[in-house]
Amino acid sequence: MNSIFLKQIQSPIGQLLLGDYDDTLCYCGFGIDILNKNLTKIAKSLKSDLVFQDTNLLKMAHFQLDEYFAKKRTYFNLPFYFVGSDFQRDVWTELIDLSYGKTISYLQLAEQCEHPKSVRAVANAVGANNLPIFVPCHRVISSNGSIGGYSGGIEKKRFLLSIENVVL
């Protein structure tokens, strides 16, 4: 059986749980609840068990997160493993290209993904992102300029945007 190696880290927005599958980052979750529905779904999909063990990739992810929180990094240079539908992977790939310090609306993102009539489906895909911060779903806001939702909670989203000097 394969393994997803997990590392718990402390960050300015609380505890994060990082997951490494086959030397690719497959998970970043808020808190350390290993029974998290998304992580359990990923493990089942990858036919993997969950093992708390540090890896070189997890060390690098932790280092890059520390740099990001210190405002010394504007992008992440790590291999990602997306577990989801083709549609979700298309949306997440678009998210990677969102520029540091910039925001985009769910509608604009749907248009960029060439699914202009699927705003709700795009928003759901954004919400299902298993690599928040690394795949910057916090940069997606409502069309009216309000902050919108966030899997980690609105305060974490506000904090991440403030790191990037975004004021809503």
- Biggest sheet: strands, sense, closure? 4 strands, mixed
Distance between the termini: 46 Å
Q: Tell me roughly what share of residues is in helical segments.
A: 25-40%
| Beta-strand share of residues | 15-25%
| Number of separate strands | 6
Average pLDDT, rounded to a whole number, is: 93
Which runs of at least 5 residues are low in confidence (pLDDT < 50)?
A: none
Q: What is the chain-wise order of helices and strands?
A: EEEHEHHEHHEH
The order of strands across the largest sheet is: 3-2-1-4
Structural class: alpha/beta
Rg, please? 15 Å
Give the overall form: globular
Number of helices: 6
Provide the fold topology:
Layout: E1 2-11, E2 14-21, E3 24-30, H1 37-45, E4 48-52, H2 56-69, H3 86-96, E5 104-105, H4 106-112, H5 119-127, E6 140-141, H6 154-163
Parallel strand pairs: 1-4, 5-6
Antiparallel strand pairs: 1-2, 2-3
Helix pairs in contact: 4-5
